[in-house]
Design a protein that fits this description.
By secondary structure, the chain is an alpha/beta fold. The chain has one domain: Protocatechuate 4,5-dioxygenase, Chain B (3-Layer(aba) Sandwich). A hairpin with an 8-residue loop joins strand 4 and strand 5. Helix 2 packs across helix 4. About 45% of the residues are buried.
Length: about 325
């Protein structure tokens, strides 16, 4: 057994934003560190923890957690589309072990994932099918949200099972940190938006997807220019989260409530649940150390953007 963790923000705007040269240079360096880390580790399998942005999961039925036995990438924002190489037997064993450990979760034999799951694979491998890949969905955009202590316990259950495998496993946690992109919300949704949130509109047409994506691109441009009502980023909150994660004791996060997270760090700050689960999974296998850490609030990406690589001691 060997486990390692790559925890990274994702952004659908990476290929669309006009970043300052120093920021783009920093990101290139951070992604190069991640790529080298992953290639040096050379995992046998990737276990991905991440959100969905109303591309695969909808309010028709919104689980807190779901493990995919098979999965397809929808290809939003120019990400790679198509089926992923999901080892069904390993995914099933993982799901059954987590459930036996007291964590209620759903399973899917036909999971749809979006850029939130596949973007890190594209960054480090250039191909979402480069390695066997088990996707674990953690609801991070659709209230109500499960308490963070349950997310931590989910991660610990995942880590305990993965530690029994005779394989090298790379955990990828994808999402966050502070950000508040223009995602429709149920209490204020229009009739058409409500149908979308419920999954009643069916697969988006190319024109509808392009329109949806352009709204986010325009919102990011306005946010970077200071001409947007989007909630501001929260660097101090981001840095405190990173400090706790690196400390090897995640229990202080149990006191963070969903309402406070939204108030301080934005409606999509809940994507840090993927980070918490990933760090908890690694911690269940042993003491760990952060090998590389990058953070910068990047308004052009509407994100407190972070990337860490973590190994067992």
């Amino acid at each position: 057994m060997t486990l390692a963790l790559l925890a990274t923000s994702h952004s659908p705007l990476l290929e669309y934003a006009n970043l300052p040269k120093d920021v783009s240079g920093e990101l290139e360096n951070a992604f190069a560190e991640a790529k080298q880390f992953v290639h040096d580790f050379d995992p046998d399998i990737v276990v991905n923890l991440g959100p969905d942005h109303y591309n695969g999961f909808f309010y028709r039925l919104m689980p807190a957690f779901c493990i995919g036995y098979a999965a397809t990438s929808v290809g939003d924002y120019g990400s790679q589309a198509g089926p992923l190489d999901v080892p069904e037997a390993l995914a099933r064993d993982l799901a059954e072990a987590v459930i036996a450990d007291g964590i209620d979760l759903a399973v899917s034999l036909d999971m749809v994932v979006d850029h939130g799951a596949v973007q890190p694979m594209e960054i480090v491998y250039g191909d979402i099918t480069a390695k066997p890949f088990i996707p674990i969905f953690i609801n991070s955009v659709a209230p109500p949200f499960t308490p963070l202590n349950r997310v931590r316990l989910l991660g610990e259950a995942i880590g305990r099972h993965l530690a029994t495998l005779d394989q090298k496993v790379l955990l990828i946690s994808s999402g966050g940190l502070s950000h508040d992109p223009p995602v429709p919300r149920l209490p204020t949704a229009t009739t058409d938006q409500r149908r979308m949130l419920l999954g009643q509109t069916g697969p988006l047409s190319p024109e509808a997807r392009a329109s949806r994506q352009q709204r986010v691109i325009d919102a990011a441009r306005d946010f970077a220019a200071g001409a947007s009502t989007i909630q501001d980023l929260a660097p101090e909150w981001d840095q405190e989260l990173l400090r706790i994660l690196a400390s090897d004791d995640l229990t202080p996060l149990d006191a963070w409530t969903p309402d406070e997270m939204t108030r301080i760090a934005g409606n999509s700050s809940h994507e840090v649940r993927a980070w918490i689960a990933g760090y908890a999974a690694l911690g269940a296998a042993g003491k760990y150390s952060v090998q590389f850490s990058y953070y910068r609030p990047i308004r052009e990406l509407i994100a407190g953007f972070a990337l860490t690589t973590v190994t067992l001691d």
